[in-house]
Each structure stands twice: as structure tokens, then as C-alpha cells.
Amino acid sequence: MDIQFAQLIVNGIAVGSIIALAAVGLTLTYGILRLSNFAHGDFLTLGAYLTWLINSIGVNIWLSTILAAGGTVAVMLLSEKLLWSRMRSIRATSTTLIIISIGLALFLRNGIIFIWGGKNQNYDLPVTPALDIFGLKVPQNQLLVLGLAVLAILGLHYLLQNTKIGKAMRAVADDLDLARVSGINVDRVIFWTWLIAGTLTSLGGSMYGLITAVRPNMGWFLILPLFASVILGGIGNPYGAIAAAFIIGIVQEISTPWLGSQYKQGVALLIMILVLLIRPKGLFKGTI
């Protein structure tokens, strides 16, 4: 295999790991809350900025990542309290929810620029040499990103399949009204949905900051690959979203020698359209 091609695949796996983490949060909020949250990418950006802020005052990067996840979850829960719970109570249409989420995305992005400015930021980390693996130069940060993504995905699998709250979440995703009359505490499920979505999305932002710079529009540029992963993987299916995220991450990177990096978003959209023409419900079975 050509070394440059293999290098692009390695880069694609690292990007796919980040898309996978955030796409799981996005597909859970859609599957359980029926919310197409266009602010999701900006919550990823918020996680990266909170990590950078805490790290910049001398806190270890891993502790910064954990604390940033807590901060991101808190902001998500605040948006649930102020916006989404009220919209559900008046049974707002999906169009209304999309418009509100776009407004929230703009509010978050401009808030980040207002507080921290528009220039790129970098974590305070020692410079580490890239590892030479079979002739490939693999930055250590990319391996860390992949390792953390795998751990987070395994943790999510255990939670969904083997815990009481995981089973309740799957029941609510299948039929909210039936779950409510069956005695499932839907409010608790909603809390856990935001907790998991916020933690994974913030972790994705922190990891993205490790392999690129932290910048105000980083999440906005990921929103199309995120939605492409969710739709491609079957709406509401976290495992499908993970698989689709790796497909999109790898294909985006492989396309750069021919199309240039500026068309990566278009590649994600093209993959989504082609698959949906053949399989309208995505590659895997969704909850909708």
C-alpha cells in the first residue's frame, strides 16, 4: 500500500474517532428526545475551550478534559431547563426545534468569540515526537484519541446493554408514551441522555483540540459530518453512528489529494446522499 494513502487512512481513523464520540451524543438526543440539535457542534467547541481554559492555568490535560466535560454537561442541562423542556411541554414542531437549535448554536459560537476571542489556541503540552510504525509517522496524540474513543464507546455499550438506565433509555427511544405509562421515569432518562451526550461531545472537542488547534468554528465545521454519521448509521442508533463516523472520517481524508481539504464537508454530504439513495433508512436500523 502506498505510504501516503496509508497515512491518510490513519488520519481518517483519528478524525473518525472524534466524529464518532460527538455523533453518539447527537443520535441519542434525536433518538430519545426527537431533537435535531444543530448546536451540537458548538457544544463540542465549548468542551474544547473549557479544556484549554482549565489547562492554561496549569491543570493536567486529562483532569482538564474531565472538568470540561462537567462544564459542558452543565450548559446542556441549562439549555434543557430553559429551552427544550418548555418546547416539549407545548409540543413544539420539529421545525421550531431546529430553528431554536440554530439560534442556540449562534449564541454559543458568538459567546465563545466574545469571551476568548477569535484566534486559535493550543493546549499547554510538551512536544512529543511522532511514532514510526511500519514507515508511517503516527503522532502520539492520534493514538491517544483513538484509545480514548474506544474506551468511551465500550463504556457506552456497557451502560446501554447492562444497566437499568440503559434499558430505560432504549425503551424511551422505542416509544416514549409507552415507556411513560409503563412506569419508567422519563425525566431521569432525559437527564442521563444529556449527561452522556454532553460528556462524549465534550470529550470529542477535547480530543479534536489535541490533533488540531482550538478555534471558535471547529464544531461548526464538524456539524455536517456529524449529521451525515447519524443519518448514515440509522437515526437513533449509536452503534450505526460510530461505524458511519469512521467511514466518513476515512473517506474525507482519502479524498484530500484529489479534491483538496476545502471539500471535505462536501465529501461527507455526498456519501450521505449516495447511501440514502440506495438505503433510505441508512446503513443500519434506526429507532425511527
TrEMBL record:
UniProt protein name: Branched-chain amino acid ABC transporter permease
InterPro entries: ABC_transp_permease, BCAA_transport_permease
Membrane-related topology note: Multi-pass membrane protein
Ranges that cross the membrane: 12-33, 53-78, 90-116, 143-160, 189-211, 266-284
Keyword Ribosomal protein assigned: no
A family per Pfam: BPD_transp_2
Alphabetically ordered keywords of this record: Amino-acid transport, Cell inner membrane, Cell membrane, Membrane, Transmembrane, Transmembrane helix, Transport
PANTHER family named among the record's database cross-references: BRANCHED-CHAIN AMINO ACID TRANSPORT SYSTEM PERMEASE PROTEIN LIVH, HIGH-AFFINITY BRANCHED-CHAIN AMINO ACID TRANSPORT SYSTEM PERMEASE PROTEIN LIVH
Entry's localization field: Cell membrane
Organism listed in the record: Nostoc paludosum FACHB-159
Primary location class: membrane
Family membership noted in the UniProt record: Belongs to the binding-protein-dependent transport system permease family. LivHM subfamily.
